[in-house]
Amino acid sequence: MSELDFTVVLRAWPYLLSGLQFSLALTAAAFAVGMVLGTTFALIQHLEVPVLSRLVRIYITLIRSIPLILVLFWFFFLVPTVLGYLTSGGRPIPIGPTYTAFITFGLFEAAYYSEIIRVGLRSVNKGQFEACQALALSSFDTYRSVIMPQVLKVASPIILSQTIILFQDTSLVYVLSLTDLVGAASKMAQLNGRLVEMYLTVAVIYLAICSAASQCVAVLRKRNELPRVVRQ
Amino acid sequence: MFDVLFERGLDGRPYGLYLLSGLGWTLVLAFFGWWIAFSIGIVVGVGRTASNKIVSIASRLYVEVFRNIPLLVQMFLWFFVLPELLPSAVGSWIKQMPPPWGAFIPALVCLALYTAARIAEQVRAGIEALPRGQSEASAALGLAPSQAYRFVIVPQAMRLIVPSLTSEVMGIYKNTSVAMTIGVLELTAESRQISEMTFQTFAAFGSATLIYLSLALCAYQLMTYIDDKVRIPGTEVIKRKRSFSDVVAGAKAPAP
Amino acid sequence: MMTLRGEQIMLQPESDTSGTPPIVLVERLVKRYGAFTALNSVSLAVGKGEKIVICGPSGSGKSTLIRCINHIERHDSGRIVVDGIELRDQLSDIYSVRREVGMVFQSFNLFPHLSVAENCMLAPVKVRKLTRAEARDRAMTILRKVRIEDQADKYPGQLSGGQQQRVAIARALCMQPKVMLFDEPTSALDPEMVQEVLDTMVGLARDGMTMLCVTHEMGFAREVADRVVFMDQGMIVEESPPETFFQAAKTDRARNFLKQIIR
Lengths: 232, 256, 263
What we know:
- The structure holds 3 protein chains of 3 kinds.
- Helices cover 79% and strands 0% of the residues of chain A.
- Chain A is mostly helical.
- In chain A, helix 1 packs across helix 4.
- The termini of chain A are far apart.
- Chain B is built from 11 helices and no strands.
- In chain B, helix 5 (99-129) runs antiparallel to helix 8.
- The radius of gyration of chain B is 21 Å and the shape is flat.
- Chain C is an alpha/beta fold.
- Chain C is built from 9 helices and 12 strands.
- Chain C has helices at 62-69, 91-100, 116-126, 132-145, 161-173, 191-206, 218-224, 242-248, 252-261; strands at residues 2-4, 7-9, 24-33, 36-46, 51-55, 77-82, 85-86, 101-104, 179-183, 210-214, 227-232, 235-240.
- In chain C, strand 3 (24-33) and strand 4 (36-46) form a beta hairpin.
- The interface between A and B is large, with 47 and 51 residues.
């Protein structure tokens, strides 16, 4: 067992930090896009919109049946082509791995967030909808002011859990040779030859962030619990 | 469109065989990984609910560590880091393992331990979902805790979690793809190879996609079958039919 | 019987004249849940073959009391002695007590994944070390006594509430306990099923079993009880034979309680 030298970590720290920033940025973007799109998908299915809900269901099932790496490869290949079709009618637009990654993760997470929200929508008491109808609220206002706030409050622990998984999944941009935290560590390791220290540091960073976030999930869950009946 | 599968690659084999070989590695990795993960997962899951502080804290630590580090990073740790941390004789022996096994064994260990942590959480959730009266009745009858777990608690908990376990099975099949980063030539890796060699991207990835979909459908059928087999008589009314897309959840997060 | 304010100390159970020690002895039992005191220095002695009915308003501690007797709940201070074994924290003593004490729960707590017969056979095989054949014989005999042997191979989910509770009684009896504890056995049942369970319990009483029942069924108390114990706010307020209790209760609290439940 050769000597471990963690001072290389200190020297590589700025670069690692920029990699971490990329991971966090990707997570944030995927969360935003995923939640908006996911809510839309969930509502489309919940309201049983004629053709669209079928298509959405197929999309979600497809995305969730195949590995994320394969989805990354697909979108890497498809996104420039599709964008090309949509804009200049023909030539695929080379948009580079970074934007592909952002779009891909957003579309990928949408499939997972959509399911969480759909289950949440199903669990809302029928009486809530009936009360809104009795008050002559429009559908839009019903969902916006009454239903969705309740769904999001109840589902917040699961949404946060899914986001933690999303943060871990961003590490897979490694296969696209993007410089997230893992990519940064890997590149640094090639320079300073210190694989062990680099990867151990990355593991510890992920462990720290995800454990802390898991604690938040536990707190959120506790807050949502119904008050306990005092023992008789 | 899929004729590329019949073309031959540089080594004379048709590309279809590349895919088949990749599928083989995927299946082997997932199959053995699952059974190892299942055994460890039940033990750790029960440990999570144990009254012995040392056991429950150790189990908690295991789950926290293996669930909060991304699978990719864990793969790297097992493949790159472990041989360096072990005494040099053992480390060298590991590094000298011939090509497929040198990558396959770390991938298998990594995948198994990662999935075990997820299974442990499902098992814990199942045990905690049982009414308290079950353990009270077992205690009142004079059963020791180990007997209560073995004959009353765990059998019921396992039946409760069949649907979420099936999601984990799908998860492990999908997670085998991460092994490509340490050199295991599983299905996704092979499909990328084909796409790079023939530029028939759609056909290459499309075939892999169809194969993964078939695996998902098999898992769904298997779950429905197992669910029926272990059904407790008298509970038909309560069970809700789970659709195919519910099962395919895979990476859905269980409670921390 | 001496009456200190709020505290009764039984020196000798009234129906016991032979001078043998009580089979269940509870002395100055205290049990707290955080700031709430469920049992406030409760003392009780039960002789062999005695039937005790414990009643009182909710929150009085009656369920807590019997759940402490087989250590399903752990008491904070005081003594519990069952069949000569003192319940402290010694695991082997706790197991010994649980072998000799049977318990019937309000929510039955049958094992849904085992058939009726298997529910009754599990503990005799694993704890009393009977062979499966012996356990099955014993199970069938007791199921016959409880008049439910035709359901032996059914599963709990397929039975009515009353049938399930009778199976629960049979399951406890298969361990051949010396004492049977009943925690509101009929409270979770639909009214038309209460009688079949009470009949089973009466049969058990006539066979000489020592029984402690927490129940609101006053008809059962009148028919079978040797003593009625009235509890309120964690203490035994009154203890008397049923005729005395129902006709001429000594304390105001007991009389108020009776007024509310007997219409």
